[in-house]
Amino acid sequence: MAVLVGKEAPGFSASAVINGGEIVENFTLEQFRGKYVVLFFYPKDFTFVCPTELFAFQERLQEFKDRNVEVIACSTDTEQSHWGWLNMAKNDGGIKGVTYPIVADTNKTISMNYDVLAGDFGWDDNGEMIAEGELIAYRGLFLIDREGVVRHQLVNDLPLGRNVEEAIRMVDALQFLEENGEVCPANWSKGKGGLKATHEGIAEYLSH
């Protein structure tokens, strides 16, 4: 798997559904330069684990916005599929009420560039192209800073849902580093002190 941390986040231009029901073309990552971005991939619309994640991000969306973070979801479904799911009530298995952008990676290039595409293409004995495994996205999450650089990535297998609290914690850690110049030790959370990246700083921190 590709490690994108420390590298510029792969750009893209694709159709997306924004504001809970408006389909737009040429939705880009570049438009959010100067803001932090949490870009997360999920496998499929109209499934079971995926709506729990999408609603979990929506429930905490204001906390992300308060931190100057844009939340963007992406799957390999079409924009029409996204739109249909967004217009279906929660009690019926839909995700109505989700307002952040959901990108349609219909040609699967975004998932491939972020190296979260499950399955692959191959060839059979007749020389014909086949798909090996289902070509959908793993549960990848990427924290992108204001300069467009990936600072954190996490990839879960398809059945394993993510912890939105951890995504917020990583945003806080990055912003703490930028504001204070101190690194964040294990189990750090907002409100705790950091440590200076020196032997003396580590010794002082561990002595508490």
Explain what you see:
By secondary structure, this protein is of the alpha+beta class. The chain folds into 2 domains: 13-161, Glutaredoxin; 163-208, no CATH class. 26% of the residues lie in helices and 24% in strands. The protein is built from 6 helices and 9 strands; from the N terminus they run E-E-E-H-H-E-H-E-H-E-E-E-E-H-H. The radius of gyration is 19 Å and the shape is globular. The N and C termini lie far apart (38 Å). 29% of the residues are buried. The model has no long low-confidence stretch (mean pLDDT 92). It holds the Pfam family AhpC-TSA. Belongs to the peroxiredoxin family. AhpC/Prx1 subfamily. Thiol-specific peroxidase that catalyzes the reduction of hydrogen peroxide and organic hydroperoxides to water and alcohols, respectively. Plays a role in cell protection against oxidative stress by detoxifying peroxides. It is found in: Cytoplasm. This is Thioredoxin peroxidase.
